[in-house]
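User: Hi! Is it possible to get a structure for several chains at once, not just one? Here's what I have:
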Amino acid sequence: MRDLSVINELNVDFMGIRRPAVVLSGVVLTLCILAMLLRGFNFGLDFTGGTVLEVGYQDPAELSDVRAALEAKGFTGATVQHFGARTDVLIRLSPEQGEEASAQVSEQVFQALSQAAEGRVELRRVEFVGPQVGEQLREQGGLAVLFALIGILVYVAVRFEWRFAVGAVVALIHDVIFTVGIFALFQIPFDLTVLAAVLAVIGYSLNDTIVIFDRIRENFRKMRKGTVIDITNVSINQTLSRTIVTSGTTLLVLLALYIFGGEAISGFSLALIIGVLVGTYSTIFVATAAVILLGVSRADLLPTPKEGVETGGTLP
Amino acid sequence: MNQYPLWKNLLIIGVVLGSLLLAVPNLSSQDPSIEITPARGSEITEASVGEVRAVLENAGVPFKRVETREGGKLLARFPTSGDQLRGQEAIERALSERYRTALTLSADLPNWVRALGLNPMSMGLDLRGGIYVVIDVDMEAALDQALERYVGDIRTQLRDRKIRYLTVVRDGSRILIKLNDAAARDAAERALSREFRDLDIQSLEEGGDLLIAAALPPPQQEQIRSFALEQNITTLRNRVNALGVAEPSIARQGDRRIVVQLPGAQDPGRLKEILGATATLEYRLVDTENSVADALEGRVPVGSRLYRERDGRPILLNRRVIVTGDQITDASAGFDSQTGSPAVFVNLDGQGARRMRAITTENVGKPMAVVFIENQTTTEVVDGEAVKRTRKVEEVISVATIREPFGRRFQTTGLDSSNEAHNLALLLRSGALAAPIQIVEERTIGPSLGQDNIDQGFRSVMMGLALVLVFMALYYRVFGLVANVVLVVNLVMIVAILSLLQATLTLPGIAGIVLTVGMAVDANVLIYERIREEIRNGNSPQASIHAGFDKALSTIVDANVTTLIAAVVLFSFGTGPIKGFAVTLFIGILTSMFTAILGSRALINLIYGGRRVKKLAI
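Assistant: Yes, the chains can be modeled jointly so their relative placement is included. Here is the combined structure:
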């Protein structure tokens, strides 16, 4: 497949369009933050607390019938929706519904449905999360993201240089806000698995960033000519085929997961798909642009010169 | 050039073979099974196998095998979970007197695998079905109870030593003792300091009152808390075991939570009823000397208390308890031989039996009452805040005349149904909870959903893998095939390590594996792109291979370490399902580094190493 290797011969001036890219990122991020502030998240049960029942009917079920059966027993305001198939129904009760948010509610609900359907319904799943647990999870989730970022900041600062660490973390924050913002904008349910996906996105996007940083560092040491921007451009172009291939294979499996993995992890795979796409973009346009903006210079990455060994290279 | 020393090749072959061996048990089918254990007073014998088999055959339930297991158990295997449920029904109907049954999932391992002690991955509840419950232990209540006990003990102590006091009351987290004069206070302080070494005892004056304050120092409070948690875990374990579930797991989580996991269990209602129940019994003499009517008007005699019977009638009982539920060592449900009404047969410990005998001897002909006590906890949401309310229900379930003295063993009637008798016996047997508990999280997965999750997870792993394999083979040709071989080996290694660690595989865990498949090729891609670059720069094929692996190494390590950081954070902050994802991601990254760096190098050396190569198929 020699023809696919064409990517290697390209020499795109990525850094030339970094300003429009920064503007684009800025606009999109503002939208995302606005969506988070104005619309908020469609938090899943894990975070809000409440009760979810998944029931499987033997025949396709009408949602209105299910609602009627629930209302007859006093469960008004329950969210009722199909889950994956026409025969599967998901019922969600928020903690305020029903006089007590006790674990008993699920039984009463299932009994009500079972009576209405004359037993032709099967309980597939019950989840009850107490309000105090949900609150803890929200706090823990935020902390997890924070600690992941700090750990990464430290590692990159040690292995590279502080400007690179800052650049990497700025890109990661960009990715997190974008991914999470999409979930807020379209009100896609945000549950525990989505949080896990966001953390995995951090890992993935960073992976991508490190590969390019690594090449920039190498080229700074190797190429004696060219400006910082030139070298960055060359580095991005040299690693471009790898970037595309790896993103591509990861996206392939994520698509398989999204299509075949079932409803339970569709949010997870969707978050990762968004994250991989934006992570690839941010590596090129956000992480490296930030490093340049912070004024990285060749000297920052050169190994400390040993006296007598350095043979007076010509610095531009 | 490009040849590995023999030991390196052997090491890689060894690791791969070892992984294959460890992964083998996962090929066995997971049979829906019933675990059969003997009930009290009976045992599993050789004949039991035939017995169970006969019952299943008679009921026309298809089954694969009935086999004996270690620890005096039987295991009946079924082809489908429907057969399993019908099988359980049949066995329960015919043999429930002597055997207990529990649903489980059991791998049908070949004998040699079993002999090597190898096991398949253990599957999480979301894959095999079951109940997961998180229980919160009310630590404040545990401390309250401890303080209440101290209040009682201090009163007794002062009385015994004839030290006159005005009041002993609880004031928040301390106990205040009010005394008449300084002499009494000094005497009391000396006595209490000697007697209650674990309390912090201080004299003080407030508003002209002479006081002693007794407080629990933090280490003691901590001890009470951790004792309450441990005691509750023991009690819950007893209760869960009595329910008959195979492989239950009860574990502490943090400093006030308990996680109960019951694979295969299908009745969350009964579980919650049993776990949260606090029912116990108290035996008291009936106060026959004072009038109930007076008590109803508020003039309750000093030594008595007003109770209600189940039908609401008021009754006066002695304040002093004869025996409490703590002194009951064993209890079983049955029926009263004369009336046929549900009854609980109770055994007392030595102390309780002596007391019971002494009091019944003195009071022949007088009535004795049995009080049924239950704490009911409910959570209500008030103004968006969850508020817990605990209500103590005390009912007199039976009043009977003491016909003759009795001691260690007797029966109690007055229960509503045989079901209630059954539950009460179970609760008395398993001991009381040291502190009230509340279920704060519950997840029940039905068996059909579990199977769906397995199928969907398996399908997405396979589809993702197939897509990546095809792409790599097309894009990198021979090198792509090498990447594919190591990718499959990588999958085998993940499964092997999960089996070895007996880590729990969950649905997010499968997602972690899928993700690893996508990311594992990254290392190969990095290496191959480097090799292509080297070739473009005009280097010889052998030199290009060498330089490609060399230069990509630090990039691969850096890139993977950062993902490892994310996995570790996920593991330490995550609960249940997230942990599963973190574990597979972590393992996947490590194995992929091994396979991509060492494994693919070995294969490529094998193909191209040590000879003149004109062109690489990359």
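Chain A has a mean pLDDT of 83. The first helix of chain A runs from residue 6 to 9.

User: Great, thank you!
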